[in-house]
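To whoever is covering the structure queue this week,

Two jobs came back overnight. Logging them here so there's a record in the thread.

Job A:
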Amino acid sequence: MHAAGSNTPISAAAGPHNTRYQDAPKNTAKAHERIEGTMTDPQRINIGEQHPAAYKTLIALSSEVEKATAAAGLNPLLVELLKIRTSQINGCAFCLRMHTRDALKKGENPDRIAVLPGWEETGYFSETDRAALRLTEAITRVPDGHVSDEDYNAAAAVLTADQVSAIAWLATVMNAFNRVAITSRYSVGD
């Protein structure tokens, strides 16, 4: 999805959606700070540029996952919300900005995006949305106790096997892209 440093697609086979990640910024020497003070004065390697074949493979995987979500009948707006939710949990500003913009362009209700971290407390989300969000959160938070039987079974009770699988792959890919962007310190708002 992001091939850092250029607006030129890494691969024409990546597809129109996946070229979004190919627009990731080049590494800069500009300092970025977090409130906690743990991320200052980075001289980061852009890992997508350092190992472009690995990055192209991740983009190709993302393209396959996009096809799987469509084939499983998942609403494209829900797919964007799942990308946003994964990026919220991981604190990936680059992916949050990109997928929020994508969701809005596709017609997502700004209120649903605004309340996404509190989705369980709102009436904005369907049973399918809730099952997908619950599974995505469980996969993203694997260190907090793996994907519990309770979370998995709740999703499987609402979603088809194809949908469960597509959502699991989507969460896996988004977690990977979040880690690429965060590790390479893709800038946002510079």
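Job B:
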Amino acid sequence: MNARHLCLLAALQTAALPAAAAEWAVDPAKSAIRFSGVQVGVPFTGRFERFKAAVDFDPAKPEAGHALVLVDLASARTGDVQRDQALPQKDWFDVKAASEARFEATRFVDKGQGDYAAIGTLTIRGTSRPVTLPFHLTLEGGGAHATGRVGLVRTEFGVGQGAWASGQWVALDVGVEIDIVATAQPAGGH
């Protein structure tokens, strides 16, 4: 095969592959950030109704990716009125002092077969800790769907003060789940 044929073959193969965008627009209406825990032995779940996310991710170069997720802690809802009224208060999220949780991923690691890990820092109530969020990514037709879960110890972030600092009434271990739907942005556009 001569050089001209190789160039033509390479061009055809490249044309057949979808262009992987680096910037993604997250659709909050189709996306969710949920949490789960156990209170007096009974499991509960909830969600954050408001959050913003900026994602720069190219599956061909995951190590160069970056994401910033800001979660409005006052938007936490579990369906239990007493719990929902308590969560924004000083003993729990203390939204008057710090209204947002912040997760900043400074890189991604390809684990194979659509599985990735977002390596970054989570900040809640002014306390920052390194966090690795494993997730599965499906790319289709200019869209992306990421689902993942990470376990956290709430007291490592100061969530649960006073009588709530032990696991006696509310377990220390909590889960955070993401279900994110995003659309690829054109190069240079937002």
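Note for Job B: The two ends are 43 Å apart (CA to CA).

Please reply-all if you pick these up so we don't duplicate work.
Q.
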